[in-house]
Amino acid sequence: MSTHTTRAAPARTTRTVLRVTTLAACVPYLTLKIAWIAGSRIGIPEGSALRRDGNSLMALNALTVLMDAAVIALAFLLTRPWGQRVPSWLLALPMWCATGLLAPIVAVFPAQTLAAAVRGGPPGAGGGSPDAQLAPWVWSLVYTGFLVQALALGTLFVLYARERWAPLWRGRIGTLPDSPTRSARRLTAAAVAVLSLLPAATHLLWASGSTTGLNPARAAATGPRLPSERRRLRPLRAAHGGRGAGPRLRTQPPRPAAAAAGRHLDRLRCARRLGRLADADHPLGQRR
Q1: What per-residue confidence (pLDDT) applies to 132?
Q2: Is residue 41 a part of any domain in this protein?
Q3: Does a structural domain hold residue 174?
């Protein structure tokens, strides 16, 4: 009994710290949203279109306040004893929504911030330009909070699932208790797995440089196009026997030089893609 209590104490402390961290990460976003609903324009520049949206912006702000309030409810559900008695299906929907909303931020926002720091400009929308939607500090504050929410909430869910469903994970699917809805659940899982292949394949194509299914503007911004750098490297390419870059020289440079040129072009392409992430006109979640 004493051993179990000794082990449970650090676990409770960890959950409490993560819950408090999640709640603290929600404060900046909720504060801004409630201030905007109350009529404040803090963080919204004079020329921003958000000052002219009126009722539609008010409704959107109210909806997002409820969504962040759901994060607070999840933080308590995953850390309090009564949360173990909540039906699993009732937990699945908000966690699924939270994953879809926060996972892209975890993947992109750190790279976006790093690219902005390398370029010497502020992260976020507009970079302080006159037509910026929001002040740069708003984007940094809000998305940093989202990042902390994602990490803390994800860790809480792992701890919660390990405590509640660990015995099920250690067995085989065939040994699970029989249920009237077992066949329906298997069919649903198979259908979801099959339907997930299409978006997964599409995103894999886009990640590899394909522009299939993209509108012209998005396609033009996707592929790495560095004409000035390619022109600069044409002499090396021609010397190494490349086609379409001019007459081929009789003497070829050492292969390490050509390899270095290729690596230079790869670095330029990578920098260009990271630069797009920090592009002020295309912040996270914003579309033209």
Answers
A1: 73
A2: yes
A3: no
